[in-house]
Structures are given as structure tokens and as C-alpha cells.
Amino acid sequence: MLNIRTAERADCAAMLDLIKELAIYEKAPDAVTVSMDEFIASGFGERPVWGAFVAERGETIVGMALYYIRYSTWKGRRLYLEDLVVTEAERGAGIGKLLLDRTIAYAKEQKFSGMMWQVLDWNEPAINFYKKYEADFDSEWVNVSLNFGG
């Protein structure tokens, strides 16, 4: 039986495995440099910065939606979906939809002004999935980042 629930500290190892699986899928297998200690502290420490929902089949985590709150000076509080990932063996079973639906419901419960995320331009299965939600795709903005260490 499949269960969607709020992530707990004990889920972090399985969640990090999913993140690494996603990095391999996105052709960046060495890009995940976060340590387990940092991951746990950032989600369950004194000042957590992320939350997540997990999909659990039996006692095995098979998917997750990890999010954080961002602030737009134009729109106010918005939920940012950092990762929506389902393990390869479970893809196509509707788990991604259940996770995304739960995340959208949470954003609405919190009265956020909206939700946003990124998708790689070559990831057609994900793009087609998000189109079913009538999501807006923005080709106007360019991603910019600075990396400090690790």
C-alpha cells in the first residue's frame, strides 16, 4: 500500500538516495555534494529551511517532494518545489501526481500566493506531466548562481 506523509528525520538517508538517483538521471552524478549531517540539520535542525512529503510503499521510501518557502516582493510567500522525484522502478504508477497534489494542497493550506519549480528543457516526460497541471513555463528568465566551496 502507498502512503504519502510528511518526511521525518529517519527518512533522510532514503531521501538523499533519491536525490542522488535524480542527479544521475539529470546527467550530473557528481553534483550532489551535501553531507548527510548538513541535509539532516537543514531539514530537522534548530532552524529548518526545507520540508518534504515522502511516498512510502510498505516501509520503503519510493518518492519525495522537497520544498522550501521563498519570498517574492511582487507576489509574497510562494512555495518552491526543489525536487519531485520517484525512484525509477516506481515511475508511471501515479506517485509523482500524488506527491505533487499533496504539495499543492499544502501550499494552498498555508495561503501561499503560488508555487514554482524548475524543469530541465530536455526532460520531456516531466514537462508533459507539468503541462497536465496547466503550469506556466517561463522562457524569459535565466538561472544565475554563485557556488561557495564544496
Write the layout of secondary structure elements.
Layout: E1 2-6, H1 12-25, H2 36-44, E2 51-57, E3 60-72, E4 76-86, H3 95-109, E5 115-117, H4 124-131
Parallel strand pairs: 4-5
Antiparallel strand pairs: 1-2, 2-3, 3-4
Can you give keywords for this protein?
alpha+beta; N-acetyltransferase activity; acyltransferase; globular; Acyl_CoA_acyltransferase; five-stranded mixed sheet; 150 residues; Aminopeptidase
Can you put this structure into words, describing what you see?
One of its GO terms (molecular function) is N-acetyltransferase activity. The mean pLDDT is 95. The chain contains 4 helices and 5 strands, in the order βααβββαβα. The chain starts with a strand and ends in a 19-residue tail after the last helix. The chain has one domain (2-131): Gcn5-related N-acetyltransferase (GNAT) (Aminopeptidase, 3-Layer(aba) Sandwich), CATH 3.40.630.30. The chain is of the alpha+beta class and 150 residues long. The radius of gyration is 15 Å and the shape is globular.
CATH class: Alpha Beta
Written as H for each helix and E for each strand, in order along the chain, the element string is: EHHEEEHEH
Percent helix, as a range, is 25-40%
Q: Using the alpha-carbon principal axes, give the shape.
A: globular
In CATH, the topology is named Aminopeptidase
- What is the distance, rounded to the nearest whole angstrom, between the alpha carbons of the first and last residues? 39 Å
CATH architecture: 3-Layer(aba) Sandwich
SS-derived structural category: alpha+beta
Q: List the domain count as a whole number.
A: 1
